[in-house]
């Protein structure tokens, strides 16, 4: 479960974020709401959240300063930065300072925000140890497999092959690490480790790369609108899709299509 602090000096934004996230997803829990940067810093130190959703420009202390101060005490806390168009260059500075994502307020959608938070949760599975009981379950499962060393590799490969088939058939829908782990009857923690061991990639990164590879094929070979392509590869927010495409493919979807259109002439 992600523990979240919301920090924004605009009451309507705070209320909207709280409404969108509270009780909408069992993996998300709001542990504090702040109306200025100083309060956000104090709340974060007190509550030790996994994620802080924070506006860049706030009274008493700006978002970047608050983020830097919180990072010194809680280096594992992730930040999702909210900004207006006028703050765009400021947002880039926030990313440089360690923010996980930034969202323009004019394009803020609950589906995009939840998608970002779910992605953060999935990545944390691969980065940090989980509770002792989960570790014990993993060790027990590993022991059972290693007792049959000749079958160990084949068994692992079979699990992951089935998982990959599920991903390839359902990448256009909202799927999570827990969903795929359930398909092979493994705990998310154990499956995450096994997936990385066999494929060499984290689950979330593999899913992103697979979706974007399929998107590239559609950009090059079809006339579908970029908005439609985003939906077809599993992203409900086209602007989020475009940012991901630029981040991982090194080029915007529009430029990808334009570049390949020129090659075809």
What does this structure look like?
With 265 residues, the protein is α/β, with parallel strands linked by helices. The chain folds into three domains: 2-123, Rossmann fold, CATH 3.40.50; 132-170 and 178-200, no CATH class; 206-264, Orthogonal Bundle (Arc Repressor Mutant, subunit A), CATH 1.10.10.60. The chain is built from 13 helices and five strands. It has helices at 11-21, 37-47, 63-73, 88-96, 110-127, 132-146, 149-170, 177-183, 188-199, 203-221, 226-232, 238-249, 253-264, and strands at residues 2-7, 28-34, 51-55, 78-83, 101-104. It has a five-stranded parallel β-sheet with strand order 2-1-3-4-5, sandwiched between helices. The radius of gyration is 20 Å and the shape is globular. One of its GO terms (molecular function) is DNA-binding transcription factor activity. This is Stage 0 sporulation protein A homolog. Residues 3-120 form the Response regulatory domain. The modification 4-aspartylphosphate is found at residue 55. InterPro entries: CheY-like_superfamily, Homeodomain-like_sf, HTH_AraC, HTH_AraC-typ_CS, Sig_transdc_resp-reg_receiver, Tscrpt_reg_AraC-type_HTH.
């Amino acid at each position: 479960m992600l523990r979240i602090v919301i920090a924004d000096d605009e009451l309507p934004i705070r209320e909207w974020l709280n409404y969108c996230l509270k009780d909408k997803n069992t993996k998300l829990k709001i542990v504090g709401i702040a109306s200025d940067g100083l309060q956000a810093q104090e709340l974060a130190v007190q509550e030790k959240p996994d994620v802080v959703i924070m506006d860049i420009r706030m009274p008493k202390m700006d978002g970047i300063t608050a983020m830097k101060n919180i990072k010194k005490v809680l280096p594992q806390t992730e930040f999702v930065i909210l900004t207006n168009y006028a703050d765009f260059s400021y947002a880039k500075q926030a990313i440089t300072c360690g923010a996980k994502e930034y969202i323009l307020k004019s394009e803020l959608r609950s589906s995009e925000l939840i998608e970002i938070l779910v992605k953060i949760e999935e990545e944390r599975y691969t980065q940090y140890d989980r509770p002792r009981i989960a570790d014990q379950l993993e060790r027990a499962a590993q022991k059972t497999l290693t007792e049959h060393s000749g079958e160990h590799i084949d068994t692992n490969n079979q699990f992951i092959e089935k998982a990959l088939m599920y991903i390839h058939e359902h990448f256009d829908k909202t799927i999570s690490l827990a969903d795929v782990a359930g398909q092979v009857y493994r705990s998310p923690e154990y499956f995450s480790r096994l997936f990385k061991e066999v494929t060499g990639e984290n689950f979330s990164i593999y899913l992103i790369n697979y979706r974007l590879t399929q998107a590239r094929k559609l950009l090059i070979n079809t006339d579908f609108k970029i908005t439609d392509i985003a939906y077809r590869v599993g992203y409900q927010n086209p602007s989020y899709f475009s940012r991901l495409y630029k981040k991982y493919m090194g080029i915007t979807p529009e430029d990808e299509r334009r570049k390949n259109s020129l090659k075809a002439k």
